[in-house]
Specification:
By secondary structure, the chain is of the alpha+beta class. It has 3 helices and 2 strands, in the order H-H-E-E-H. The longest helix is centred in the middle third of the chain and has 10 residues.
Length: 54
């Protein structure tokens, strides 16, 4: 079964300059989200990143 993740939109230029405010918001709202501007699903919790990037 495939899980659907929330969509989270960002301003790519602001994210490039300083991603931490958006990542903090993402962690609070939806720790895993599809970001269409990056064409990627992003995990934002350290433990999720550690587990899934291997």
């Amino acid at each position: 079964m495939m899980m659907r993740v929330p969509v989270y939109n960002i301003d790519p230029q602001e994210f490039w300059n300083d991603p931490y405010p958006e990542l903090k918001s993402m962690r609070a709202e939806c720790p895993v989200a599809y970001v269409p501007q990056l064409v990627a699903v992003l995990p934002t919790r350290r433990s999720d990143i550690f587990e899934n990037e291997k």
